[in-house]
Amino acid sequence: MAVIKTIKHVEIYKDEHYNTFPTIIRLNDGSYRIGFRQAPDRRTAYDGAITHVDASSKAVTIRSTDGLDWDTDATIIWDDFFHGVQDPSLNVLRDGTIFVTYFTWKVYERDDAPAEMKPGTWHRVMDRWIGRMAGCYSIRSADGGQTWDTPELVELGDVVIRGNSVELEDGAILAPFYEREGDTFNVTVGRTEDRGQSWERLAVLPGYEGQYHYHEPNLFQTESGKLILFIRSVKLNKEPGEERTASPLFTSESHDGGRTWSEVKMWPIYSPSPFNALRLADGRVLLNYGYRLEPYGIRALLLDPECTNIGTAPEYVIRDDGYGTDIGYTSAAQLPDGRVLITYYYYLEDGTRYIAGSICELERDES
Q1: What pLDDT, on the 0 to 100 scale, is given for residue 110?
Q2: What's the CA gap between 360 and 339, in Å, rounded?
Q3: How many domains are contained in the chain?
């Protein structure tokens, strides 16, 4: 049985902003980048309230040569004049290009909001404004994140994204979107053959039997080429006392490049935070996630190369000292010495949300 041992927790990036939703990548030259959402910290102005919908949010990045020492100043991936930028998800293509997806918000005065807005595309903000999802985009860097091209709109309707994409052998990219259809949220797998200029809706996985919404799926490819969707869920019509089991992990698999998918499976692994999967150098897979239930923190599973032991792999507590539910959104990378850095956003007693990390060793228990 494998063992995950936490070595230490680190503060990666903390300033006066509200820094959230990181993803980490290792570039072909061995350096690392973390992309995340940066917004004003509005707690003082609004009696301690926080919101994930902010017209001033932007996508930023920091760099490290070794995964341990990070830039002290963040640089901009994209800062939109009219829209808040949300959830930049970073991916490295085989030729070294950084391919990023994100979505945007437009914020209205309540009286100025469109009279008819599709359910699931809007969000009430501090009971004073209305935020509407304003489009999904991709953006690329050909020089390791120093400069970025112009964003391309994902023309698949009102889709949203937070999760890693996969580059297939033929160069096409698959991305894991989610969107509302009727009374439920579905997973939509999109395919682009020109790195984001145009998209095909490849497959749709409807919400689970009208009982669960699907949110923030993560797409992963195993060594054999099998594709797996790791899907965060939200139960509809929760009963009192169901909070701890209301957000199970769902998975689905594809063996034909994402065109058809297996029947979804529900697993007794719970947290209302998205799941991230990292293929390790030895072929095993580290599944990591924020734990937004008491005691709040970060957790992980160590899976076999084809992720067939989800139901039997032990759950490891990486840390459990969080001060509330506004944490998580993990993303992991392996360091040159074999240790793993799990990144996420977090807050402690002072309430400042920051980009944090946990350095872990992965051992084999021979007992």
Answers
A1: 85
A2: 6
A3: 1
**Structural contact between residues 289 and 300, judged by C-beta atoms closer than 8 angstroms:** yes
The verdict on residue 81 lying in a domain is yes
Amino acid making up residue 113: A
pLDDT one-digit tens code per residue, 191-207: 999 999 999 999 999 98
What confidence score (pLDDT) does residue 365 get? 57
Tell me which residue has tokens 């195993």: 222
Q: DSSP for 236-285?
A: SSPPTT-GGGSSEEEEEEESSTTSS-PPPEEEEEE-SS-EEEEE-TTS-E
What one-letter code names the amino acid at 299? R
Phi and psi at residue 354, to the nearest 5°: -145, 165
| Secondary structure letter of residue 149 according to DSSP | -
Q: Is 1 among the domain residues?
A: no
C-beta of residue 9 within 8 angstroms of C-beta of residue 367:
no
For 15, 51, 146, 353, 355, the CA distances from 72, given in Å and listed in that order, are: 9, 25, 15, 16, 12
Q: What CATH number is associated with residue 336?
A: 2.120.10.10
Which residue has 């709040």 as its token pair? 296
Residue range(s) defining the domain that contains residue 111: 6-364
**In-domain check, residue 157:** yes
Question: Model-level pTM greater than 0.70?
Answer: yes
| Percent above pLDDT 90 for the chain | 86
Q: Does a structural domain hold residue 172?
A: yes
pLDDT in tens, 271-289: 899 999 999 999 999 999 9
Check residue 43 and give left, alpha or beta (phi > 0: left; psi -120 to 50: alpha).
alpha
Measured distance CA(173)–CA(94) in Å, rounded:
11
Cα gap 79→275, rounded to integer Å: 26
Q: How far apart are CA 40 and CA 57, in angstroms?
A: 7
Mean pLDDT of the chain: 95
Over residues 118-155, the pLDDT tens digits come to 777 888 888 889 999 999 999 999 999 999 999 999 99
Q: Which two tokens stand for residue 293?
A: 């239930």
Pairing of strands 212-221, 200-205: unpaired
Tokens 């935070």 sit at which residue? 273
100, HSE (Cβ side, Cα atoms, 13 Å): 34
